[in-house]
Amino acid sequence: MNFIAVDDERLALDNLLSKLKKAQPQAEIRGFLHPQKALEEIKNGFYPDVAFLDIEMYGMSGIELALYFKKAFPKVNIVFVTGFPEYMPEAFALHASGYITKPASVQRIQEELENLRYPPVKEAFIQVKTFGNFEVFVQGKPLFFERSRSKELLACLVDRRGSGLTMQELAAILYEDRPYDSSLQTQLRVHISDLLKTLKRVGAKDMVVRKRNYIAVDTNKFDCDYYRFLDGDVPTMNAFTGEYMVNYSWAELTTGRLYRCKV
Q1: How far is the C-alpha of 180 from the C-alpha of 185, rounded, in Å?
Q2: Max intra-chain CA distance, the chain
Q3: Which terminus of the chain has fewer Cβ atoms in its 10 Å neighbourhood, N or C?
Q4: Which domains are seen in the chain, by residue range?
Q5: Model confidence over 175-229: pLDDT tens digits?
Q6: Using CA atoms, how far apart are residues 164 and 72, in angstroms rounded to an integer?
Q7: Do 197 and 190 touch, CB atoms closer than 8 A?
């Protein structure tokens, strides 16, 4: 499992990280003193199965941070770790998974992990990053594409936000002025097949919907900064600095739309 721990007191954070490691030795654990740093971490592709959050923190409370986490990942498990039991009603109003009173113990952490609101599933969690270069992360790790054109093909589908493309429309975007002859059609089929094999290898084959002369992405199968921006997510909008899929010239039109939305 992947854990994020946030507490603005160094001693409390170090104690929590130590107890988490003992409770779940195989877990990927990342700790932060600043809530904003934790938000940046999930924007960069790290998906936490469980977020252990202090409540009273400087700059942003654990309740506020939990709201951002749940907006990005609706099924993330939130466990509040705090010295103030009076926050319990407010915490559970957010459908938190658990509540631990400081100091956290290995036993209490294990009890919460055994009774998570959303037990971790084996399905691949996919996060697509479009701001800057286009990148895909599976369970927080970059997805490797053997063919760069297959990666660009997926980027094009993500840019369309679930709207389907015919093979000829897709070819016109990816190969620009090349005639849509049998040679190009064969090349396109090869790249589509390669993309589907790449996604299947990491358990993400359902990300792409393929029908006769039609291809699209299922936007419900992955998280995407571009989509969160369009939904009005404030942290994501602030993270946009004017660069969108900069490795592809055809993405410039969307870049302009995003920039106009932000200003």
Answers
A1: 7
A2: 69
A3: C
A4: 2-114 (3.40.50.2300), 139-262 (1.10.10)
A5: 887 898 999 999 999 999 999 999 988 888 889 999 888 999 999 889 999 999 9
A6: 25
A7: no
